[in-house]
Amino acid sequence: MSDEEDSTPRGQQRIFGAGITRKTIQFVPAAIAPTQATQLAPPNVPSISPGDRYLNIVLKDGMPTEGHHSTSTEVPNHEKRPSQQQLELRGALCEICNLPIEASEGKTSTASTIHESSIAHMVCLTHSHPPSHLDRSRQGLKYLSSYGWDPDSREGLGATGEGIRAPIKAKVKNNTVGLGVKLKGTKKPPEAKLERLDAKQIRKKDMEDRRKRERLQEMLYRNDDVEKYLGGG
Amino acid sequence: MDRRPDTQDHGRVKRRKTIDSRYSADSDDDGGVKLGNFGQPAEVKPKKEDLDAKLSQSSKGTDQLAEETSKKKRKKEEDEDADLASNPYLAQQYEGPPKKKGLDPRANPYLAHRYEEPVEDEGSYNGYSNGYGRPANRMDGVSNASSLARFPRHKSTAAMAKKAEDGPNNPFSGQPLSSQYFNILKTRRNLPVHQQRDEFLRMYQNSQFLVFVGETGSGKTTQIPQFVLFDDQPQIQRKLVACTQPRRVAAMSVAQRVANEMDVTLGDEVGYNIRFEDVTSQKTILKYMTDGMLLREAMNDNNLNRYSTIILDEAHERTLATDTLMGLLKEVAQRRPDLKIVIMSATLDAQKFQSYFNDAPLLAVPGRTHPVEIFYTPEPERDYVEASLRTVLQIHASEPEGDILLFLTGEEEIEDACRKIRLEADEMIREADAGPLTVYPLYGTLPPNQQQKIFDPAPPASKKGGRPGRKCIVSTNIAETSLTIDGIVYVVDPGFSKQKIYNPRIRVESLLVSPISKASAQQRAGRAGRTRPGKCFRLYTEGAFKKELIETTYPEVLRSNLSSTVLDLKKLGIDDLVHFDLMDPPAPETLMRALEELNYLACLDDDGNLTALGKLASEFPLDPTLAVMLISSPEFYCSNEVLSLTALLSVPQVFVRPASARKRADEMKSLFAHPDGDHLTMLNVYHAFKGPEAQANPKQWCHDHFVSLRALQSADNVRMQLKRIMETQEIELVSVPFEDKNYYTNIRRALVAGFFMQVAMKEGNSKTYVTVKDNQNVILHPSTVLQTESDWLLYNEFVLTTKNYIRTVTTVKPEWLMDIAPTYYDITTFGKGPVKNALQRTIDKVRRKEATKGGRR
User: Fold this and answer.
1) Hey, which residues 63-82 in chain A have their CB within 8 Å of chain B?
2) Can you give the pTM of this predicted structure?
3) Domains in chain B and their CATH numbers?
4) What DSSP designation does B272 have?
5) Which of B544, B585, B800 sits opposite A172 (nearest CB)?
6) Which ipTM score applies to this complex?
7) EC number(s) in its UniProt entry (chain B) (predicted)?
8) Cβ(A51)–Cβ(A72) under 8 Å?
């Protein structure tokens, strides 16, 4: 409401005058040269990534850190597996996670089930995502899908699907709080007051909670057809 | 789908027509026009020219040195020339001096009969002065006039162009060049872009796309199109070079400037074309236009065959039209390998443009900038407005001479800040013997004459030997890229700006105060280094700069309602909106919303094809909602009134409410008030304004009645232009007599035909309303004049703040809604709730009424 008049009562309005003498605003020069200000500092690449360090400790026998800084430990299909000879000894590789299926039990069928239930294998499985929230009956969606856009594909529009997937969110700001200030108001809610209740109050509160739960239950699971059948609604 | 060949054919026919007319003009004097003369490549490149170029370059160097040491006056003059490129406001100022100097009357084609000597055979002069209309023998005879004749197309060099520019005759019009031309030529050759003319030409010749980066003041807007003209020679092929601008004013003023630089009359060789204003002719070879205009031309000429080169200027602004145009040009370029495209940007994020245009080569021209020292606050500021005011005063008290630029977000904030700074500055002068400080506001809706004031020089010291004066400009982000003010040494940047955001889920477009981007902050800082090393004070911490600011501002295409754009694209024959290669494709939901809105408006059918109404609506430079309302208004017998209303809704706010006289303004507004709502009130104002009493002295009348003369005048203008389109589209202009009892009802019903998607219903007995289908709780904006109690309201605007307001409302009846927009108000599509119940009640009521009617019969 930009064109509204100032609603603060006159007495409480900030007195504006002699501001300069009251408090000066401190400034600090930029830490880096202004010409470089735009260029983002390259992310510090440690000489050895945590993942490699971990492997170095675990596989003492010499997995040299060949300068690959892959931090993802859950993609084990690169060189950071036990050495090649070990693999050959152990038998077939799993197609999905590229790890050897250990045939220790003898029977291959049990071995594969054991392997399939291993975390390493499951992590490598392709995940299905929950379907998009978009209403399938929408006219606009019909148009877009007729040109090959799939709402569940998790892709945007554009020649290569590089577009943003969700609209940009609007954040309303109607105060003059400066950039980077953490408002205190947001911190307050978590501090719930502790109070002592007697038996009666507890009973009352319990009833209230139950009623609330029931209302929620009804709201979420209500079915018009069923209610009509039951003679309600 | 079947439209495409149709429109193409249409375009072709049109083109043939123009060519024919040119031929017919030629045939008066000589049937055998030898155009080949132009095309012959110059085989021998004289070495002397190279030498000349070197000599001139070295002399340029000394020239520049002399410039720097010379007095202020001269420098100012030169800077003015340079800045004009991007400075629409300065243009007006500029137009004065050269005219006063006096154009050489010889340069005026209309006075050519007085100076017969240079023109040998006057009889053959047929008005086509750019060469191709002339008999070949004359071309050979007057070699100076055709100094371009030996130019090989796409093989020329800067030295060759220089020779042609040096005259003595105008290479394009053949007229002798004026002394004013040579004056300007001298300053032009000092522009930064001129140093890289050869480099530019080489890259331009070798590639279809070229990305050109030059800061404001480098002269790119005025010079690059001329560089292109000399090399591309559009006149040989009967084509044009187009240069697009995001703003109308810029297109106009730059065209005027370039016409002066080329020593031709505006509208002849150099012209401009903005919405409703076409200042071009058959002779035109360079056309400045708004990007929206070029888009409109593409609708009828899908391959843009009229153009040999298209220059997109100010591409960094990423307006909706620029983005759409870029996507379109990428497709057109594949179909037309001969078309050259130059993208010009003022900021350094050019890599994105490069990769978008298939890794196009990049040429960067350093601007005339000085280093800027950047300061941050050690702690976040609690109140950025107060902090910014104090920073300004601090600078005034302690920093050496130099003007200040403060960025704030909106009109009210800026006016308020100006007032406070003035008060404080007065106190400082009294108490601390500070120098005088003049404060100027700057924002888009400010009248041009007041915007002009920011170019006034800073005030002098109040007494001899006193501290120097200084000016402070408090501006929106208008001063960030689009406008250049010299003399700014200090920039205060609180880190916020007002940005448009569109939420497709509730279909609300709103202007919100949001943190700026890093690129934006950088641009703001750069404003301080235009004339000498400067300082930029950022009112946030360095950590906040790194962590809280996004890299670049979101382009408009991601922040707008796209229904207008989708309609344009459909009209352009682009159906595959999914794979249309925009630089930043919008979110699917936004596009879906746009498609649905157009479907409800009956501009697209259920399969997404353009309907007849859609085609008609795209002819209007309006939002589809307004266009549909206007087109369907004859059905309600009020197209004259709806036309006025459409014009009023497309201009800034008509009512003025100055802080000093709010009560009086409200009283005056109530004079026009119509109980049924604000739309009708606006219409009353317009009718009163057009009445004899007001027209006697419009300025006084507007001042007395607290309405904006500027808004009403521009509404008048828009109305006239829309009327012209309606006439060509054969839409009837009808009215019922004012005494008719349905006069206002008709208008209200016509409003529903366009705005049926912007309706709110009263919630119970409370003051709140809920928007239909989107279910947003809203309340009436306090500015409304609405007096009648009504359950249903149609609104023009949804204002998003802590409270959601609807502004400019009019009462409507639910029967109308279901009658006029039956698909949208199909009761089965509504979820359970009060709106559905109310609609159901209405249906029952109507049914009962009909039943009783039937019974009586």
Assistant:
1) none
2) 0.72
3) 1-43+70-102 (no CATH), 149-365 (3.40.50.300), 372-558 (3.40.50.300), 563-728 (1.20.120.1080), 756-853 (no CATH)
4) E
5) B800
6) 0.74
7) 3.6.4.13
8) yes
